[in-house]
């Protein structure tokens, strides 16, 4: 309902954070529209003076007219003062009180008409005065409704004396006139409150809209700033990507150049190893043949000590030949081929064991099933052949046991060759995969485990030597799936 809505609006507005701004704007409006009331007051006072001067005491009515003009001029001075200095929100309540005081004075001056001896005036003059005061009250309901108490400050002192005077005349006609004054004043008060509520709501909406516009503008500026920042970040990202592509292309060129250089170096190394082995093997064969001739033709004439030296020489020649052959094998390994096969480790090791000459008292156990590896079968065969031979050759007993097993380690396989030999001292475990590392067995070349390490690293794996309990060694290969 309208009344409920207005009451709700007033309740909400009284607690709004914009209340100081609304009051300041209401006071500003009050002082802006005040000159209209001044003009009406001056003109109406002249009209009342000329109409009533013939039926009332001239000095009284002239004094009344002078008081109206003096008060109005003072109010004009108040407005001029207000407009001549900077207006601040904090002083709004003070300027409001000053204006209300001027309204009370003006209303009292107009209300003093009700104290005049109306019995001397005709009924028409009495109705005229009531009409003038009612018109002034009607004007106040709109002109001074910017503040809630503006209408009351003016109208109560203006209408109340006349209404009381009508009642004191003590006849039905004047009772009716007094009742009409009260009713008319009350209705105008209600209209004034409605005008005040509409004006206040309008101001509230204006300030809320201004705040919303300010926030939208700030949000727009913030969004534009973020957009500029995003554009700058995108430009920086594109620039970084371009630099990264250039650097990547540069690295690719370097890798291609280094790969080509490495391939050339490997070929040269392989050629050198082949030539070196050929050049070294030729005199070795001559020495071996000479030792064989001496052994066959003159062994019976040699002293036992010389025969032992001859046998030692032939063993050293054979060891030298094995070293040269191992170096040639190591140099020829290169990198794993790009094309790989799926190698069934079970089948490959069974074939290897069939071809591998093991001592009669050595057992080799495959703990099946074993996985399939993505590799060159020849490389896998070389790896396990070297590991099994190494386990047998370095065993310290005539009877031994070797196990081959595998374990799933997530992204890798753990492939292990385990023996029950003497084991490897902890300080030597990092050295056994180097070239010519023979441990305590000088009769061996020390190339087999180096070949294993080179092949495993070529496939992206790792190889390590671990202790086996209670004795022996575990050679563990970590092979990518």
TrEMBL record:
GO function term, MF aspect, one: phosphorelay response regulator activity
Name the record gives this protein = histidine kinase
Q: Name one GO biological process term.
A: osmosensory signaling via phosphorelay pathway
Coiled coil, from the record: 209-257
Check the record and name the PROSITE patterns matching this protein: HIS_KIN (PS50109)
> What sections of the protein cross the membrane?
30-51, 57-78, 99-119, 125-144, 151-169, 175-193
Report the catalytic activity: ATP + protein L-histidine = ADP + protein N-phospho-L-histidine
List the EC numbers from the record: 2.7.13.3
Species annotation: Thiohalomonas denitrificans
Q: Which UniProt keywords apply?
A: Coiled coil, Kinase, Membrane, Phosphoprotein, Transferase, Transmembrane, Transmembrane helix
| CDD domains for the chain | HATPase, HisKA
The record's listing under SMART domains reads: HATPase_c (SM00387), HisKA (SM00388)
Superkingdom in the source lineage: Bacteria
Q: Does the keyword Transferase apply?
A: yes
Task: Describe the location of the Histidine kinase domain by residue ranges.
Answer: 275-481
Query: Can the keyword Transferase be found in this entry's annotation?
Result: yes
């Amino acid at each position: 309902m309208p009344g409920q809505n207005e009451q709700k609006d007033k309740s909400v507005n009284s607690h709004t954070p914009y209340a100081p701004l609304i009051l300041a704007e209401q006071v500003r409006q009050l002082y802006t529209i005040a000159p209209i009331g001044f003009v009406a007051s001056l003109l109406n006072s002249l009209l009342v003076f000329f109409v009533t001067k013939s039926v009332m005491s001239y000095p009284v009515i002239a004094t009344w007219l002078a008081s109206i003009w003096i008060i109005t001029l003072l109010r004009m001075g108040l407005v001029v003062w207000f407009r001549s200095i900077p207006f601040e929100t904090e002083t709004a309540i003070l300027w409001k009180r000053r204006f209300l005081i001027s309204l009370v004075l003006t209303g009292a001056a107009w209300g003093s008409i009700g104290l005049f001896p109306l019995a001397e005036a005709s009924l028409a003059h009495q109705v005229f005065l009531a009409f003038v005061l009612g018109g002034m009250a009607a004007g106040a309901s709109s002109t001074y409704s910017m503040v809630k108490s503006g209408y009351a400050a003016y109208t109560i002192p203006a209408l109340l004396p006349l209404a009381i005077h009508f009642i004191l005349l003590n006849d039905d006609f004047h009772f009716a006139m007094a009742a009409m004054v009260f009713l008319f004043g009350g209705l105008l008060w209600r209209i004034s409150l409605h005008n005040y509520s509409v004006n206040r709501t309008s101001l509230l909406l204006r300030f809320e809209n201004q705040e919303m516009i300010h926030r939208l503008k700030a949000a727009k500026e913030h969004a534009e700033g973020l957009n500029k920042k995003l554009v700058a970040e995108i430009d920086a990202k594109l620039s970084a990507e371009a630099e990264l592509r250039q650097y990547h292309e540069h690295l690719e060129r370097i890798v291609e150049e280094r790969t080509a250089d490495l391939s050339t170096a490997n070929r040269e190394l392989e050629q050198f190893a082949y030539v070196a082995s050929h050049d070294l093997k030729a005199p070795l064969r001559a020495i071996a043949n000479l030792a064989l001739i001496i052994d066959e033709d003159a062994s019976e004439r040699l002293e036992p000590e010389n025969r032992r030296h001859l046998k030692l020489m032939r063993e050293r020649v054979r060891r030298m030949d094995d070293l040269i052959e191992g170096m040639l094998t190591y140099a020829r390994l290169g990198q794993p081929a790009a094309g790989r096969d799926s190698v069934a480790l079970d089948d490959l090791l069974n074939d290897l064991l069939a071809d591998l000459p093991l001592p009669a008292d050595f057992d080799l156990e495959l703990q099946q099933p074993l996985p399939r590896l993505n590799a060159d079968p020849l490389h896998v065969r070389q790896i396990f052949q070297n590991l099994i031979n190494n386990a047998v050759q370095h065993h310290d007993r005539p009877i031994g046991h070797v196990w081959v097993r595998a374990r799933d380690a997530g992204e890798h396989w753990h492939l292990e060759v385990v023996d029950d030999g003497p084991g490897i001292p902890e300080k030597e475990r990092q050295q056994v995969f180097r070239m010519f590392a023979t441990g305590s067995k000088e009769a061996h070349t020390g190339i087999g485990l180096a070949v294993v390490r080179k092949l495993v690293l070529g496939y992206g794996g790792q190889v390590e030597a671990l202790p086996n309990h209670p004795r022996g060694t575990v050679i563990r290969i970590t092979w990518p799936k």
